[in-house]
Amino acid sequence: MKSLILCLFLVAGVSGQVVEKCRTDTYPPPEDTKLAHVVVNLDLDPAERWKEALEPVKEDVVALIRTITDHFNKYVLIAADLALDILLNTLPEPYQKEIEGVSKVLGIPEGEVALYNVFYELFTLCTSIIEEDKSGQLYHARNLDFGLFLGWDNKNDTWLMSERLRKIVRNVDFQRNGKTVYQSASFLGYIGLMTAVRPGDFALTINERFNREGGFIGIYKWIMGERDAAWMGFLVRDIMEQSPDYESAKKTLMTHKLLAPAYYILSGNSTGQGVII
Question: Which terminus of the chain is more exposed, N or C, with fewer CB under 10 A?
Answer without folding.
Answer: N
